[in-house]
Amino acid sequence: MLSSYERMIATRYLRPIKGEGFIFIVSMISLIGIAIGVAALIAVMSVMNGFRGELLDRILGVNGHMLVQGYDGRLDEWERLRKLTEQAPGVKMVTPLIQQQLMASRRNLSAGVIVRGQVPSDVRNHPMVSKNIVEGSLADFKDGEPVIALGSKLAGQLLARVGDSISLISPEGQVTPFGVTPRIASYRVVAIFEVGVFDYDNAFILMPMETAQNYFRMGSSVSGLEVVVNDPDKIDATINALTPVVQPYGAIVDWRSLNRSLFEALEVERVVMFWILSIIIVVAVFNIVSSLIMLVRAKSKDIAILRTMGASRASVMRVFMLAGTSIGALGTLTGMGLGFLLLAFRTEIVQGASTLFGIALWNPEVRFLSEMPSKVELGEVLATVGISLLLTVLATLYPSWRAANTDPVQVLRYE
After folding, report:
1. Would 98 disulfide with which of 203, 212, 289, 398, CB 3.0-4.6 Å?
2. Which tens digits make up the pLDDT trace of 168-213?
3. Residue ending a domain, choose from 193, 219, 248
4. What single DSSP character describes residue 75?
């Protein structure tokens, strides 16, 4: 335990005094370096956690956790298969869908789109879509009607609003003596949604199930079943139970297979960024070593006097360890506050920097999400604080050991 005089001496050594201003400046640089390193780690890791979590939630919210696809793009006995799938362990919801890539055009504008046919009630009960309608409503989104709902970015590409008509063009048209004629049909826009994932807002068109079946000439068939489970991380048990049931009709594709490369890249980037940003703390810790070594040399006479007055080597070592650790602890606390402040104003900071430098620092086309998310993980914050304090304590060991081994006879010989 630290005695009162050890705390008093360590506190005095931390204050700037005449002739030792340079040591104080080096100490403050160390404190600022640790604060910047801790703040950068907390802010960057929280943004990356938020990005991964938000992206996962939105992608799975739109696509579901698992897809049962027909071998030839059709599931004829989908109603029977749906009942069997609903009985599998861990399954929360099963919805039929038709999904194909087409070309959409309006006047002289065109864009590649993904048309998804779904039962209107399933779309209305889907919070990711129904709670993100930015224009129009799903009241007129009814089976058999020539109506569609599309993403906000796609609406911007086609300059379309609610009430406008959009033509959908399929290359699989009618065979004529002059070749294959593309199939073209017009549909009225009744709703525009914005789920926050750029790829979906920029390409997706929702269509009532019966309307999609008529357009794609699928009769009463669908192209697949979308499955939502209770726990996406424990989907293997559901897949193992469904595989024997599904094999005669089609194949199972889960969310990990569909997005494996994306989430593996995010995980690698997260680990690499953690260790790269930790280097900032390591550099700041070296400054603590330098400042303590200079402090030991400047206070050699004080140390000798303390030793002659009965202070033990352990006591002297604790004084300098406390001085160095105080710098690291104060820098860590300052960094925590700065990191949380950066997270609180992250959107304003990004917008200000983008305006200042004239570049888009957060481009939805690259980042998938429209806004920068964040998610603070308590374990990572504690790990960052723990690493910072551990490195600080290790940095004080050598200078403190040198101070404790100061020979009073050699220092005071000519005094």
Report:
1. 212
2. 988 776 655 555 567 788 999 999 998 877 778 888 999 999 999 9
3. 248
4. B
